C-alpha cells in the first residue's frame, strides 16, 4: 500500500477538528495495519522547518493510528510548542507508511535516500538507547552514512565520545517508506470537493495534560 492524499487529508482534518473543537471527518481509506509516522512542517518565507514528527514501529490500524499520531506529533512533540490554529495555513502534513524491515549486517549496511534506519545500542553505563531517521533525512541533510549514525547516537541521548568502538556496538535495522505530503491549501480544496456536514462539538482540552508513554513511539526530526 502507498501513502496517499486521503491519509494526509485525514490527518489535517483531525488536527483542524481538534483545534476548532469539532468532530473530524470519517476516514475514506481501508483500515490496513502499518507502522507509521506523521510529520508536520511549516513553510515561511520560502523556508521549511519541522513542527512535529512522531510515529510508531508497531503495525497500527490506519484509522486509529493516523488519528492518534496526527495529534501526538502536532501537540505532544516535546521538542516544540503545540501547533496553533494560526499556523494552519502554513503547514504541510506528511504521512509515512513503513515497509521492508531488514536486519543490517553492520551500521553502514544501508543506502542513503532509500532506507530509513533504526539503531539500538548499549552505552558504557549499560543503558539501552534507540533512535531513528526516516529515509529522506540523511539525503536532505547532506550527510554521509557515518555522519547520520553519529547524529543518531546523539539523538538517542548518548553524550560520550563517539568512536569506532561505539559505532560497532550499533545494531541497525533498515526499512523503507511510502510517503505523501499535502499542504493546507490542498487539504481545503480536497474537503471542499467532498462536502461533509460537521457536528460541532466544543471541548475543554489541555494539550499538556496527557503523556504518551508507548515504548514504541519514536520522535523524528529532519
3D structure, described in words:
The chain has helices at residues 5-20, 62-75, 135-141, 145-155, 164-168, 184-192, and strands spanning 33-44, 47-61, 91-103, 116-122, 128-133, 171-183, 217-219. The chain has a 7-stranded antiparallel sheet with strand order 5-4-6-3-1-2-7. It has 222 residues and is of the alpha+beta class. It is elongated. It has 2 domains: 5-99 and 177-219, 2-Layer Sandwich (Glycoprotein, Type 4 Pilin); 102-175, Hypothetical protein ph0010, domain 2 (Dna Ligase, domain 1), CATH 3.30.1490. The chain starts with a helix and ends with a strand. Helix 1 crosses helix 2 (62-75). Strand 1 (33-44) and strand 2 (47-61) form a beta hairpin. It contains 6 helices and 7 strands, in the order αββαβββαααβαβ. It comes from Rhizophagus clarus. This is AMMECR1 domain-containing protein. InterPro entries: AMMECR1 (IPR023473), AMMECR1_dom_sf (IPR036071), AMMECR1_domain (IPR002733), AMMECR1_N (IPR027485). Residues 1-191 form the AMMECR1 domain.
Please outline the helices and strands.
Layout: H1 5-20, E1 33-44, E2 47-61, H2 62-75, E3 91-103, E4 116-122, E5 128-133, H3 135-141, H4 145-155, H5 164-168, E6 171-183, H6 184-192, E7 217-219
Antiparallel strand pairs: 1-2, 1-3, 2-7, 3-6, 4-5, 4-6
Amino acid at each position: 500500500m502507498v501513502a496517499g492524499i486521503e491519509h494526509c487529508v485525514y490527518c489535517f482534518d483531525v488536527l483542524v477538528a481538534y483545534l476548532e473543537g469539532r468532530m473530524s471527518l470519517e476516514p475514506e481509506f481501508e483500515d490496513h495495519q502499518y507502522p507509521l509516522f506523521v510529520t508536520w512542517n511549516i513553510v515561511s518565507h520560502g523556508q521549511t522547518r519541522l513542527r512535529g514528527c512522531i510515529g510508531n514501529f508497531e503495525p497500527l490500524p490506519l484509522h486509529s493510528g493516523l488519528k492518534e499520531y496526527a495529534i501526538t506529533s502536532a501537540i505532544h512533540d516535546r521538542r516544540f510548542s503545540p501547533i496553533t490554529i494560526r499556523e494552519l495555513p502554513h503547514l504541510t502534513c506528511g504521512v509515512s507508511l513503513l515497509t521492508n524491515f531488514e536486519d543490517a549486517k553492520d551500521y553502514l549496511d544501508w543506502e542513503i535516500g532509500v532506507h530509513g534506519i533504526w539503531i539500538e545500542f548499549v552505552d558504557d553505563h549499560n543503558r539501552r538507547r534507540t533512535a531513528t531517521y526516516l529515509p529522506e533525512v540523511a539525503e536532505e541533510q547532506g550527510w554521509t552514512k557515518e555522519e547520520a549514525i553519529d547524529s543518531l547516537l546523539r539523538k538517542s541521548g548518548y553524550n560520550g565520545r563517539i568512536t569506532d568502538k561505539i559505532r560497532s556496538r550499533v545494531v541497525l535495522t533498515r526499512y523503507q517508506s511510502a510517503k505523501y505530503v499535502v499542504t493546507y491549501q490542498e487539504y481545503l480544496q480536497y474537503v471542499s470537493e467532498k462536502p461533509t456536514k460537521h457536528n460541532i462539538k466544543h471541548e475543554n482540552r489541555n494539550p499538556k495534560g496527557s503523556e504518551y508513554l508507548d515504548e514504541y513511539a519514536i520522535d523524528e526530526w529532519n
